[in-house]
Specification:
about 375 residues; Helicase, Ruva Protein, domain 3; 15 helices; about 50% helix
């Protein structure tokens, strides 16, 4: 067992798998403020809005979404949901599964609370089955009805006729039309809870290309466009905008995914036209945020934060923190990672672990290079 106390740590916090929002953001505070301010500018406006967060793999897109959600939800009258664009397995009906995922991410307890706190002043705007589902979810005296209603919203397996009858629903959630009515219902439910906007943080948009058929990719893009247009569609039908929130979508995708979407659009235009470009046209170029690599100073800040913050205790180590590395180590890590946050964390985790195993009191460039070359992580 490694004794991380030698480095004043309770664990190797560089070895965490995936993004961890318990850590502070290093070097991108101004970027995050600019992104958050753009979202704040869209809260409560009478249209849906789309933004993009674009960056290479490992550049910190998921972490940025987490930190954004963490900060803005506590400050603003919004209802936020963060989820991947697609499930891990190919989906036969994107629109249905995407709306189900939104409800599943909110969770049963939050949905019940939203329904119980709602005045239901929007009931004249939504389809009858939507109002029935929300009414069921606030039926505190009938747990079975709540469970079945939640299953209706979130379960990939459709309810049986008997179960649908039990919750007084005739329309199964099997079509995009039904799913979109439920999404509009959520816009209404949010507004009745004094949430001026829904914020949908959509991660891993590049997984669109796991849908190998061109027609399937087109379906996903067209559904995303239709969701963006949903507010305007309701306005055109004379719906009372005081009774439903607008939606702010923030789509996160890789540089490679962005280029693939552009290439996909060229192929579409050469045949049937439409597709990606009408969707992209709805996102102002000024609302596309590109994550750049960290600079040298931010690289050092990231390393120091991982060495001086214990996320389990949420306490900073005694100042100044004991940082067991030399300046040339920082320069070397910056050089071999090119400022990519995921690589910085991964490489430092391996070097730190080996340093502890070998009893190294202070890690320098030479030691780090030997370790990383030995693991074939950098070229000799």
């Amino acid at each position: 067992m490694n004794d991380w106390k030698k480095y004043q740590l309770t664990d190797n916090w560089f070895a965490m798998l995936g993004a961890d929002p318990r850590f502070p953001m290093a070097g991108r505070q101004e970027f995050l403020k600019r992104l958050a301010q753009t979202i704040k500018d869209f809260i409560g406006v009478q249209t849906n809005r789309g933004l993009m967060l674009i960056g290479d793999y490992g550049m910190g897109k998921t972490f940025t979404l987490m930190k954004l959600e963490q900060s803005i939800v506590t400050e603003q009258p919004i209802l936020a949901v963060r989820l991947p664009l697609l499930p891990s397995d190919p989906t036969p009906k994107f629109g249905v599964d995407f709306i189900r995922s939104i409800y599943a991410t909110l969770g049963k307890n939050q949905l019940v609370e939203l329904c119980q706190n709602s005045s239901f002043d929007f009931i004249d705007l939504v389809d009858g089955f939507v109002g029935q589902i929300f009414t069921n979810l606030r039926a505190t005296s009938n747990g079975d009805v709540i469970e079945l209603s939640y299953d209706y919203l979130t379960n990939n397996q459709s309810l049986t006729k008997s179960e649908l009858k039990q919750i007084n629903i005739r329309r199964p959630l099997t079509t995009t039309t039904v799913a979109f009515e439920l999404f509009f219902g959520l816009m209404c439910l949010a507004k009745s809870n004094q949430k001026l906007s829904l914020l949908i943080l959509v991660d891993e948009v590049e997984y669109l290309f796991t849908q190998k058929a061109t027609a399937k990719a087109a379906e996903v893009i067209n559904n995303l466009r239709a969701l963006l247009d949903l507010y305007s569609e309701k306005v055109a039908r004379g719906f009372d905008t005081a009774k439903f929130s607008n939606v702010i979508f923030l789509y996160s995708l890789s540089d490679d995914g962005f280029h693939k979407l552009q290439a996909y659009e060229k192929r579409r235009q050469s045949t049937s036209g439409g597709g990606w470009m009408p969707f992209l046209d709805r996102i102002n170029p000024g609302h596309r945020f590109f994550l750049e690599p960290l600079n040298l100073q931010s690289t050092e800040s990231l390393i120091e934060l991982r060495m001086s913050i214990d996320p389990l205790r949420h306490l900073k180590q005694p100042q100044p923190p004991f940082i067991p590395y030399t300046e040339d180590f920082i320069d070397y890590i910056y050089e071999v990672t090119a400022g990519k946050p995921r690589d910085i964390v991964d490489y430092c985790g391996i070097v730190l672990k080996e340093g502890l195993r070998k009893g190294i009191a202070r890690i320098d460039k030479k030691f780090a290079r030997n370790i990383l070359e030995g693991f074939h992580m950098v070229r000799t």
